[in-house]
Amino acid sequence: MADRRALERVSSDLTRLLAKQSFETMEEANEFINQFVGTKGLPSPERGLTPLEQAQDKMYEAWEARSRKARVRLAREALALSPDCADAYVLLAEETARTPNEALKLYEEGMRAGERALGPEAFAEDAGNFWGVLETRPYMRARAGVAECLWEMGEARRAVEHYQELLRLNPGDNRGNRYLLARLLLQEGRGEELGALLKEYGEDASAEWLYTRALWLFRNEGESPRASRSL
Q1: What is the 8-class DSSP label of residue 45?
Q2: What is the spatial distance between Cα 214 and Cα 83, in angstroms, rounded to a whole number?
Q3: Which CATH class is domain 4-41+50-187?
Q4: Which of 191, 167, 108 is nearest to 143 (CA)?
Q5: d(Cα 57, Cα 35) in Å, to the nearest integer?
Q6: Per-domain residue ranges for the chain?
Q7: DSSP string, 37-67
Q8: Which of 84, 146, 90 is nearest to 115 (CA)?
């Protein structure tokens, strides 16, 4: 089964195609898009692709590749096209790193690549809706990898900072970083911060979130009526 990240190719192709269009109404935009529904693919954009766009296309190929050897080769080809391709570092961390420290270095390279690719304006203008901007996703994946490695290496404080920043950039939390942050805060006994996080996502009715809230209440209040009702 192909990596679900490969599914972003369609969104990427559509974004490139729409970039050169001019619509006066939403109906015109929808009509333009609907003509491609059910077709085998979108037409190529009327411009040459940048090195980074070419590199990202290599990554879509890599995620669709069946063998590890092919995935690694394509990731390295992507970096040869553009050293700012954060997803290439993410794949190499996943596929080639033998230790958490090796993976961390690759994820950190991916973070830096993502920062270069996006530029400081994106972090100022798109904060709060990062995942909704397709180009930010490689950076988000790399930073999540950094946080995971730091946690595995026992550097909980630094891992918390990364997860908190990921949620600041994208409070909608499409990747579920709040669950990892909650586990980490619970593990580290940072009850006040965990309480604030639980409150921020108070409408989350998933089993994991409700269980975490119940455990937090019992730790803070003992067998209080409120804690008992949370079970």
Answers
A1: P
A2: 46
A3: mainly alpha
A4: 108
A5: 23
A6: 4-41+50-187, 202-231
A7: TTSS-PPPPSSPPPHHHHHHHHHHHHHH-SS
A8: 84
188, 156 in Cβ contact below 8 A? yes
Residues 6+ apart with CB under 8 A from 210: 230
Residue 163, token pair as written in the block: 């997860």
User: Could you state, in chain order, the average pLDDT of each consecutive group of 10 residues for the chain (231 residues)?
Assistant: 72 66 67 59 65 95 95 98 98 98 98 98 95 95 98 97 98 96 96 96 95 88 68 64
Amino acid (1-letter code) at residue 13: D
Encoded tokens for 36: 């491609």
> What is the sign, positive or negative, of the torsion defined by CA atoms of 158, 117, 65, 170?
positive
What type of residue is 31? E
SS3 180: helix
